[in-house]
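Lay summary. Proteins are chains of building blocks that fold into shapes, and those shapes determine what they do. In this project we predict the shape from the chain. Here is one chain we studied, written as its sequence of building blocks.
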Amino acid sequence: MFSSPEISFLKNELHNFINKIQTMLDNPAIEGVRRDKLEQKLIVTVSIVNKLDHQQAEKDNRSTKIRLLIVDDVESMRKIHRHYFMESGFKNIDLAEDGNRAFLMMKKAIDNDHPYDLIISDWEMPKVSGLTLLKKIRIDKDLWRTPFYLISSLSEKKHILNGINMGATGYMVKPVNQKMILDKFKSYFK
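And here is the predicted shape, written in a compact code that computers can read:
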């Protein structure tokens, strides 16, 4: 485990690196394989920063009013997950029916200076999948730091690793229950 000063130092260095990559990606001349490699570096670096943020939250034992967005194309699943999170202590929960809607809600929340603190998204959705949403978030200058957890029935190791390698903060295999939520998100309840 890193100490708080070490975490702050690492995060500062990684933020500088992220800004450098984002500036490079703003150049329309960067395309093809080079762009893909830069995006992958950005995704991995963002994933590291998110894990450091999560570790620091646990270490600092800070208590915040978490703003949560649950994304799932199945209405009953959105409502069940909202119920589980509310029963676990979350109070400020919004729902989105697909990745497009979620991305728009996140951008609007940033514009209103009230960003989401946590995203829980189904992987398999029509239009924009959870994985595609994750990639859009990880390369967005305003949203890249948002912790993002994938929920999926895909339980094979290769799918889980794919989600984590794309920058997911965490991964939960369906069916999700309240105990899983309490275990996975205990640092948010302190």
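What the prediction tells us: The two ends are 19 Å apart (CA to CA).
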